[in-house]
Amino acid sequence: MQTEASGLTHRLAKEADLPALREVMELAISELQKPYLSPAEIEASRGSMGVDTQLVKDGTYFMVTDVASGRLAGCGGWSRRATLYGGDHSTPLRDENLLVPGRDAARVRAMYTHPDFTRRGIGRLILSLGEAAAKAEGFLSVELGATVAGIPLYKACGYQVIEETLAPPVNGLRIPVVRMGKAL
Ligand SMILES: CC(C)(COP(=O)(O)OP(=O)(O)OC[C@H]1O[C@@H](n2cnc3c(N)ncnc32)[C@H](O)[C@@H]1OP(=O)(O)O)[C@@H](O)C(=O)NCCC(=O)NCCS
């Protein structure tokens, strides 16, 4: 679907999109966290960030493309599974059990914008798509694990802090992860 005003188009990601998604994630992780984390902390953050192929398989992961250039500008999604955050490799964080709509909070997952396309509303667009899809399945609220770099976006979109936590250690470093939530 294309949003004429923004020059952006979006669709659900497919498995064939995974290499391009990984590229955008890598750039977002390494560049956009620089104002918030030291180089060693950014390296450690890779332990709890990155692609979660289950989201793509579940059909709950969106990608946004810049219409003029055809470039992948951002990605992110939601989940009906319990994993709060983390990529395929984040074994201790994974819990693929299905959540119960009406009882559990759906998840917002793996939000990444290409550094060339920040502050154009891509994060906000993906959040609204995920929230609408979760609501349509009967979820009454959403929760997420926010990196420090993600907090301004989520606050701007109505999410409130639930709990301040730390990701599992990588090279002895534990990066902050803030559990946030919003009623739908
Ligand atoms: C977090 C992230 C996805 C935001 O993406 P984005 O597409 O630039 O966000 P949007 O353009 O939709 O921003 C919407 C609003 O959020 C707030 N916001 C977003 N990024 C911000 C920043 N760096 N500083 C301050 N406010 C910010 C603003 O209120 C913004 O509205 P405005 O531009 O009209 O002021 C992106 O910075 C990113 O990929 N970061 C690195 C990876 C990461 O940490 N992801 C979060 C995992 S939990």
Describe this structure in words.
The protein has 184 residues and is of the alpha+beta class. It has a single domain, classed as Gcn5-related N-acetyltransferase (GNAT) (Aminopeptidase), CATH 3.40.630. It contains five helices and eight strands. Strands 1-2-3-4-5-6-8-7 form an eight-stranded mixed beta sheet. The two termini are 23 Å apart. The relative contact order is 0.19. Coenzyme A (COA) binds next to helix 1, strand 5, helix 4 and helix 5.
How is the topology of this model organized?
Layout: E1 2-3, E2 8-12, H1 18-32, H2 39-45, H3 53-58, E3 61-66, E4 72-79, E5 106-113, H4 122-136, E6 141-146, H5 151-156, E7 160-166, E8 176-183
Parallel strand pairs: 5-6
Antiparallel strand pairs: 1-2, 2-3, 3-4, 4-5, 6-8, 7-8
Coenzyme A (COA) binds at residues 28-29, 32-33, 74, 111-113, 118-124, 146-147, 149-150, 152-153, 156.
Key features?
single chain; 184 residues; alpha+beta; Aminopeptidase; eight-stranded mixed sheet; 5 helices; 8 strands; globular; binds coenzyme A
Low-pLDDT segments: none
**Distinct small-molecule ligands in the complex:** coenzyme A
What's the CATH H-level superfamily name? Answer: Gcn5-related N-acetyltransferase (GNAT)
Percent range of helical residues: 25-40%
- Separate helix tally: 5
Give the overall pLDDT as a whole number.
Answer: 96
Number of beta strands: 8
* N-to-C span: 23 Å
CATH fold field value: Aminopeptidase
**Sheet with the most strands, sense and barrel status:** 8 strands, mixed
Structural class: alpha+beta
Sequence of secondary-structure elements: EEHHHEEEHEHEE
CATH architecture label: 3-Layer(aba) Sandwich
Number of domains: 1
Strand content: 25-35%
Q: What's the alpha carbon Rg, rounded to whole Å?
A: 15 Å
- Outline: globular
For the largest sheet, list the strands in their spatial order.
1-2-3-4-5-6-8-7
CATH class: Alpha Beta
